[in-house]
Every structure is written in structure tokens, then in C-alpha cells.
User: What shape does this take?
Amino acid sequence: MPLALKKSGKKARNSYTRSSAPAKKSGGSKGSGIRLGGAAAAGIFKRLRGGSGLKSLAALTVLLAGLGLIIAGVCYSSLWLYNKAITSDFFTTRHVDVTGNVRLSHDMVLQYGGIREGDNSLAVSIAKVERNLRKTPWVEEASVKRLLPDRFVIRLKERLPSFWVHKDGVLYYANDLGEIIAPVESKNFLSLPTLRVDPGAEDALPYLMRLMRGMQSGLLPIEAGAVSSISVSPGKGIEIYLEDREMRLSIATDDWEGNLSRLSLTLGDLARRHELRNVREIRSVNGNVWVLLNQPA
Assistant: This one.
């Protein structure tokens, strides 16, 4: 029996069993050690991570507090510098230049705008000055520019009057569209033609601007100062009254350019023939010009 076992080269079953049993135990002990080590490392990591978070929070708190102090310091310094600037003579307003004013004097512009020489230039609100000027009936557009340390430049576009208009017993200035500007006063008196607009003639008002441009350019040979009154009516269109000649000129708004040109040619022809003194009325309408003479005494 022993020979047979040795010859075959195989180990006995009991011998294999005894040698492998301790190895199995050894393997089981190693795995348990690894699991215990991992749990301990995780606990340590958690503790470390918790400590790092507290340190980061503390650092962030210190940083925010520092930034707050810096911002507070900057704000305080800025306020201190601003207060110093608005009380410094270096920024005292010494020059206010005004351009574009026609009806308004330099002093009136400063009064309406609420700006004075001697004011601190940094304390002046440009938006407020522009707003005050635009509230003035004579001012259509206004812009204000500050030139440090002591100068302002005010640019205006005024509403220019072309007519007088009676409304509710008050005499007003009106622009070349018949729009009211301001009451006529002695301090800003200007003699202008009186405008009357009949009911139903509102659509013809834009032709007033074209009439004034025609007189200014010489297309219509009439001086604006010679016009006493202008009437706008649905029947006659625009009627001009020349008081010094006691003459009326009527221009229909249909074919405005043609009617205006024919009226101009007729006036020139009558003037060359020295016959204007005998004319009472001229009507330019429907492609024709009608001349009405004074009745003999």
C-alpha cells in the first residue's frame, strides 16, 4: 500500500487537507483586516474634511469683513472729497455761455434754468436745468454742458413767433403753424400780423408755413412787415391783408405752388405798370387770377 502511493506521485488526501486548512484561515483574517482599515480611514477623512470646512468658513468671513471695511472706507472718502469739492471756490461758476436765444435774453435764460454765476458747478444738476428750460413756452429744445471747473454752455432752440392770435380775450404769440406760444407782454413786445382761423379751415394751417417761407425767399414779392392780418377760411383759402395799400390777396390751397406763382407774376406785372394803387383784391384760384379794382369815387 505504501509503495503504491509513492509510485503514483499523488499526495494523500489527509495530508492535502491538513496543509490547506490553515491557509484558508489565514485568508479570512486578511480580508477582515482590510475592511477594518478602510472604515478607520473613512472616519479620519470625515474628521479632516469637517475641520477644513470650518477653516474655510472662517477665512471667508474674515475676507468679507475685510471687503466691507474697504468699501466703507472708499464710500466715506468719496463723500468727504465730494463735500470738499462742492464747498471749494475752485469750482465756483464764473461763466455761463448761451447760444441760440433770440427772444430770451441771457439773464432770462439763467433765470428760467435756475442757474446763477457764483453757484458751485458740481452742485448744479444739468438734468434739472434742461427740464426747467423746456418748461419755458419759448424754448423748444435745450442742452446744457458742464466744463469744469467754472463754466457752463447752454444751447437753445426757441419757438419763433410769426403771428398774433386772439384767444379768450388774450393776445398770444403763435408760430408759423398757428400754435400758441405765450401771451404778448410789454417786455417781449413784437409787432406781428394777426391770424384768424375760421371753423373748418384747420386743414389749411400747414400752408401758413409755406406762405411765410415764400415771402422770406422772395417767391412772393411782399414784405412780411407790410402784412397786417392773415385769415384762413374754407372758401378763400389763405387771405392776406395789406393795410397800407388796403389790398387783399387770396390764395387757394389747391395747386398751392401754381396759385402762388401766378399771384407773384400778377403782382410784378401790376407793379411795372404802376397799377397796384388801383387794385382792391387779387384772387389766385383754379388756375386763374382775378384782379378786382377799386370803385371810382
User: Anything to note?
Assistant: DSSP finds six helices and twelve strands in the chain.
